[in-house]
Amino acid sequence: MSFRTTVFATACLAAAFTQAQPATAAEKVLRVGMATGDIGKIDPHLAAGTQDKVVVGWLFNGLVRVKPGEATPKFIEPDLAESWTSSPDGLSWTFHLRHGVQCHQGYGEFTAEDVVYSLQRAADPNRSAYSSDYKAIKAITAIDKYTVQIDYSEHVPSVLGFLINFQGGNMVCKAAAEKMGADFTKHPIGTGPFQFKEYAPQQELVLEANPAYYEGRPKIDRIEYRFIPATAARDLAFEKGEIDIDYGQTDKTWYSRITKLPHTKVVAVEPTELYTVHINESHPPLDNLKVRQAIAYAVPRDALVKYRGEEVTRAAKSVVPVGYLGETDATPLFPYDPAKAKALLKEAGYPNGIKLKVVQTSLGTMRDTMEVLQGQLRKVGIDLDLQIVEHATFHAQIRKDMSDLVLYAAARYPIADTYLSQFYDSAATVGTPGAVANFSHCNVADAEIRAARTETDPQKQLALWATAQKKIIENVCSVPVYELFNVWAISDRVKLGYELHGALSQGIPIIPATTIE
Amino acid sequence: MPRPAGSAAGRLARKLWRIATANITIEAGIVLFLLVVAVAVFAPLIATHDPLDQDLFERLGTPSTEHWLGTDSFGRDIFSRIVFGARISLVIGLSAVLTAMVVGSFLGVLSGYLGGWVDQLVGQATNILLAFPSLILGLMVVAFLGPSMINLIAAIALATVPQFVRVARAPTVALRDRDYIQACRALGFSPLRTMLRHVLPNIWPEILVMATLWLATAIRVEASLAFIGLGVKPPTPTWGGMIREGFENILTSLWLAIFPSLAILVVVFALNLIGDGLRDALDPRLRKDE
Q1: Minimum-distance CB partner of B252 among A253, A372, A375
Q2: For residue range A178-203, what is the model confidence (pLDDT) as tens digits?
Q3: What digits encode the pLDDT tens for the residues A251-305?
Q4: In 3-state terms, what secondary structure has residue A223?
Q5: Is A257–B235 a contact, with Cβ atoms under 8 angstroms apart?
Q6: What is the spatial distance between Cα A487 and Cα A188, in angstroms, rounded to a whole number?
Q7: pTM above 0.90, yes or no
Q8: Count of domains forming chain B
Q9: Chain A contact for B250, CB < 8 A?
Q10: Chain B residues with CB-CB distance to A248 below 8 A
Q11: What is the CATH number for B104?
Q12: Which residue range forms the structural domain that includes residue B137?
């Protein structure tokens, strides 16, 4: 390249930069730091990790939604469907769609065809992790471009609950999902306020405002979702102003340190994740009720809550998380009584204690919790041999029945049925064709769980759920430990534009009115 | 010519003592290292607490009279964990290096003495292993076999073996054509006897220096593997694992990561002193330069 060409090229570049600068300066960019090394699957029907669900919440809509900032079914309001009616027997529902809603990136108008496709996809075990929630759907019919009819073969606990913008209820755009196939997990197309822009593996995911969003173009132009696995590094980035929203550590040390920072708001977001130790009854000696009771008596629930911090944790009250429709503490959980635990082990024929093999994820809070439990159970003579594995391996191995105890943390749609059906119905037992997450091989409350699912009388339904919880607790299928909130630190520069009490996506909802100064 | 065993052992002991007291660097290194060994051996007597005992209400405590070096995020006593952690570091480091030393020296002498296809085979295998940095090789083996004490020892030994092969092979090649070795052949001694009785005694100083230097590396590799979560299973205290746990709380409780780091520093420093001193004592060229 000659000298003159170089000078010319440099001048052109300089000119281009000066031109581009004002536009960049005016751009409103929201930078979010997430505790993950990378994204997993941002396909709403497969997303399971918090790092994925948070993004799904920004990209997709449901037929209906829980009002932004809330996390309970009483705030259900229209979303992609403007109105709906149901038949007198409650088995047939008709939804009237909003006109003119656009799929991201020019994939066309969102119509009844997309609803049919989305729900069929959500109900298909090969394409969805939440298919069991849609088993009762008999038929989904597009009556016309903007009308959809859903017919159920039996009553379900909450029709609208499974059509909200959460898990399988998220609506995908048919043309995009069919065109991309498996790539959809990394390049999702929905109808939400933000759309996919680019993805740099192990670095960040960039989303941009959806200019055609039905509620209006978001004030935030771009979201940079950065993957920063180390808490200390993420916190430093937040303190230095390199990120505006910081995914926190559910721990009192983190909480008390971050709340002291200036211009910072710390929020503990519902729904909580209930940490439960599922006891695999198919592995001796755990088939012995006394051994299971010993484990339950050895868990110091209240001390564990204090250990983690009362600001960010609450004690479990039942095998269903606190606040779920149908949850009851009528049957108390086993209290902490190490002497009784030892006595029970002795009665069961294990005066020298027992040794259990536990597959455990290396993921932060779950690993910490298991290590604390290991230390506590050790005091009564229960020795846990922890096989620490990477998170994906953990999920694979616990589903192959390889662990004596399974510590699982989960938030579900807040009605008792979701938790009971997925974790305690024998049809969901791991290793069986209908496997979901019944790691304990629990089968004592099948009748009640199944009857409650189709019961139309709310009082009878509550009674059935209560009996199911009683049986599961008494049989010690699991030991619920504590519930952890998702905690986030938000810079004062971010104006959310709504009251934040919770979010089913476990993230911070970014709505069109949300802005950054 | 072979001599009576008792006298040979005596000679070896005298020689070792002479080397161990050859210079102040070696002496200082040995004293420091023996101190660490003593801590590991008498850990139950030295530790002030059970290293596994959690106190959920005493977490992240600052150093105090009750907990000399503070407590970790599970309320466990850091001093006691460092004391017991010395056992893991030394056991894994020593076992791995001893294994590597025995296997590596044997292979090195064998390939140097026999030459031909044996030399080719061992040489190529060594080159392949040497292509990987020891941490990466250890990481691959542990990731493949799963983290456990035996697997860690195997992984670190495998990563260290080629160093000993090299250091044993080179002098063996030089010795092979010496007159006294030729004489052994002429007398009809078996190759094994010649290698063990006449080659090995002449090359062990080099191997010993290598062993002290690689022991330091082995301890560092063990700590590095534990730091990235591939160490011995929890709740067993290991220095690398403690640094990893400390790192998570580095903004609030700096000492969690600092104290176990210092422990590693002390051991590695002691071993490097011994290694450096030995090299000076055994290398005639260096001695002349002084």
Answers
A1: A253
A2: 999 889 998 999 999 999 999 999 99
A3: 888 999 999 999 999 998 888 999 999 999 999 999 999 999 999 999 999 999 9
A4: strand
A5: no
A6: 26
A7: no
A8: 1
A9: yes
A10: none
A11: 1.10.3720.10
A12: 36-282
